[in-house]
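Ligand-bound model needed. fe (ii) ion.
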Amino acid sequence: MALEPTEFYTSLVEDIEAWRRDLTPDDGATFFTRPMSEEEIVEWLSFQAYYEISAAKFIAKWLADTPERDAFVLLAQQVEDEALHYEYCMRALERRGVTSIDNWKPEPEWEEWINLWYPSGETTLERVVAHNLTGEAGACQAFYELKPRLPEDVAKTLERIIPDEQFHMKIGKLIVERYAFTDEQQAMVRERVRRTFELEQAGRVAYNRRMVRLGIGDAGDPVPSF
Ligand SMILES: [Fe+2]
Ligand SMILES: [Fe+2]
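Prediction:
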């Protein structure tokens, strides 16, 4: 039996919260406790800039194929937000002497998660439950954990980004509540939420591996939750 949509949405959020609680630090549950060096801040900002520009591009592509009027206007706003987030991250990088991420190479897990999985999905519901509902919740959780460890200018960047990401999470909620009614739709949504969470964890493990490779982190550090 399909759940009533609001109840269904609440059950998804509870699932994600429970999965996060069940993680051990090595799975990505907690952010590492080392202070962020400037070298790591550049790495993290490069990752974030890559994430933001990728989001702006794949959401822009969805617009060509979004029949729902409510979703169309909300996703159009989101494209602008993600483009601005990319710009804010690039400004923080520029203050550190980095003017482009063109030669920055993402980890394979990040490409699978951000450039293959998020853009996938035939319908607005399929797309938005992965990226807005699950992915943006993970991003916000990471921002809150990261913020106290960041220098003031980057913390301010996050303060500008966080309210927008919360708005994007609300788009996810609204789409689920309006468009996920049947057993079939709700089963599909659950599966996409689960898969997104899995890819996010793989992405976090890859982040830690990269930091070890770059000599920034130790192999024994808990996996960060960006
Ligand atoms: Fe964003
Ligand atoms: Fe977003």
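The pocket of fe (ii) ion (ligand 1) is lined by residues 52, 55, 82, 85, 161, 165 (CB under 6 Å).
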